[in-house]
Design brief:
single chain; Glutaredoxin; two-stranded antiparallel ribbon
């Protein structure tokens, strides 16, 4: 995944090697503070993330910011316990946008260990299937 996300991701405790993201479920999340839809999804994703990881961490989110400035990014990222692409790396954000076919935000997709998109309907899965989404994601990851 380093070829897509770089060698380091941002956490609230400083840089984290991308190679340390070895969890079963990995989501890439394109979002922005200025979007009401993104703020709603962030809240729902946070509840889902905490529920799934409450016993054992098996799930990570990689946040790609569409925030308009650094202060909005900081405010937005403060609500998230997961990892982020460095805000300053706009070139990487554009490359990821193109790779995953992002047309609007919020955009949330399941990726495999190589960064290949396996499901781009994750938002709907979380909102309608709850924990059963993990079964659908297991099937998608095996394809």
């Amino acid at each position: 995944m380093e070829h897509l996300f770089g060698i380091q991701l941002e956490s609230h405790n400083g840089p984290v090697p991308t190679s340390s993201v070895v969890f079963r479920y990995k989501l890439v999340y394109f979002s922005a503070e200025w979007s009401p839809l993104c703020n709603t999804l962030t809240s729902e994703l946070l509840a889902f993330y905490n529920m799934i990881n409450s016993y054992e961490k098996i799930f990570e989110v990689l946040f790609v910011s569409y925030d308009r400035n650094k202060s909005d990014f900081i405010k937005h990222f403060a609500k998230m316990p997961w990892l982020a692409i460095n805000y300053k790396n706009k070139k990487r954000v554009k490359m990821l946008e193109k790779k995953f076919g992002v047309k609007e935000i919020p955009f949330l997709a399941l990726i495999d260990d190589d960064g290949n998109m396996k499901n781009n309907d994750v938002r709907n899965d979380i909102m309608t299937k709850g924990l059963a989404a993990l079964n659908a994601w297991d099937i998608a990851l095996c394809r």
